[in-house]
Design goal:
Elements: E1 4-8, H1 14-29, E2 33-39, H2 45-57, E3 62-65, H3 75-89, E4 93-97, H4 98-107, E5 120-124, H5 137-149, E6 155-158, H6 161-170, E7 177-180, E8 200-205, H7 214-224, E9 232-235, H8 241-250, E10 257-260, H9 265-268, E11 272-277, H10 286-293, E12 298-301, H11 306-310, E13 317-318, H12 323-335, H13 338-354, H14 357-370
Parallel strand pairs: 1-2, 1-4, 2-3, 4-5, 5-6, 6-7, 8-9, 8-11, 9-10, 11-12, 12-13
Helix pairs in contact: 1-2, 1-14, 7-12
């Protein structure tokens, strides 16, 4: 069954965008007719490149309009614009990604067009609103909105068992069909990469946000540099970039830490001997999968769906929000990197067998059609 699918999300950066990018390419290759809507005011050079690729495969094009992360007076206009696009393309499926994408997708479901009664809306949280604490005022508000939006949702897709458990704990049992479908990689990505000659000891790749724990990495590096020079490259862009750069200056680490703009992951991973993922919150991060597929050593926070990738008792895990434990694990890598490489060989074989884009796409397709 060939479908008309509209993907709706906010920011075209990070793991969420990688997921939509991969899913859209696989769906187009399978003969589905696609449209994409995302924010017009965020992104980077890599965003532009990938959106151009999607423009070439999406029959109904890529639409960009202002979509704000938090509630905004322009939200009603955005909902109406997404609804118009869904009506014009005769969408069989509207798939919202992330909290704001999910809000727009569900409130934009056409109700008056010929295709309206047959349009189904699916939603993948990708962490998003699930990162909010249920005891906070903002958390209570957003989680309550999520609960009310269930009645407009035909299916919920979670990229990890962690996200599904969190949804149950914070929002309650879903009123619609649900399925856990892990993110996947292209077979061509399973190629070992070597660090460049001038690689630093460690590398971080991701959005420059407090949520990603870059400040914890900087604190850990400050501890390590009290004994010997330890270097790192921090790659990415985001709202907290200047804050992190100021922290590096205050710690007198400007000669040990280099900042670089976002670049393709196969390039970014080569800037360091070991990838560090010090996040405070995560869902099922692509960067961990990508590092394993490249056989690059990793040190990762025990948060979100990361243990589903590396194993719940993996020695690669460190407790979140603990710069001291992070520093100790980084010191362990410097002292004996070979054991990290051995672990990567085992993980490489595991995810190559289980986590592929084709499997992810076929599972999403099956979920769509079983709930139409």
């Amino acid at each position: 069954m060939n479908l008309r699918i509209l993907h709706c999300f906010r920011s075209p950066v990070g793991g969420l965008f990688r997921h939509v990018y991969d899913l859209a390419k696989a769906q187009a290759a399978a003969g589905h007719r696609l449209a994409i809507v995302c924010d017009s005011d965020s992104g980077d050079d890599l965003t532009d490149k990938r959106l151009m690729e999607l423009q070439n495969i999406c029959e109904f094009g890529v639409g960009r309009l202002p979509i704000y992360q938090h509630p905004h007076q322009s939200d009603l206009k955005a909902i109406l614009q997404v609804r118009r696009i869904a009506r014009d393309v005769g969408a069989d499926i509207i798939h919202g990604h992330g909290a704001k994408g999910g809000l727009l997708a569900r409130l934009a479901k056409p109700v008056w067009s010929p295709s309206g009664p047959h349009t189904r809306v699916f939603y993948t949280p990708h962490g998003g609103v699930l990162h909010f604490e249920s005891y906070s005022l903002k958390g209570k508000l957003f989680l309550n909105v999520e609960k009310k939006l269930q009645r407009l949702t035909d299916g919920l897709i979670f990229e990890s068992h962690y996200s599904f458990r969190t949804y149950l704990e914070k929002i309650g049992p879903p009123e619609c069909a649900t399925r856990v479908i892990h993110n996947g990689l292209d077979p061509a990505e399973f190629v070992p990469l070597s660090p460049i000659p001038e690689a630093t000891d460690f590398v971080f790749v991701g959005e420059m946000r407090h949520l990603k724990g870059v400040d914890l990495l900087i604190e850990a590096l400050s501890m390590l540099n009290q004994k010997r020079p330890v270097t790192a490259t921090i790659i990415g862009s985001g709202p907290d970039t200047d804050t992190f750069k100021a922290l590096v200056r205050s710690k007198e680490l400007t000669s040990q830490i280099t900042f670089r703009p976002a670049c393709p992951i196969h390039q970014a991973l080569r800037f360091g001997h070991c990838l560090v993922v010090p996040s405070r919150r995560e869902a099922f991060p692509y960067v961990v999968l990508e590092a394993i597929a490249a056989k690059r050593p990793i040190i990762v926070a025990k948060v979100g769906g990361i243990p589903e990738i590396v194993g719940y008792e993996s020695p690669l895990l460190v407790p979140p929000e603990n710069a001291n434990r992070l520093a100790n694990k980084m010191k362990s890598f410097i002292s004996g990197p070979q054991k990290f490489y051995t672990l990567m060989n085992h993980l490489f074989a595991d995810i190559q067998e289980d986590l592929s884009i084709n499997n992810m796409s076929s599972c999403v397709q099956s979920f769509y059609t079983s709930n139409m």
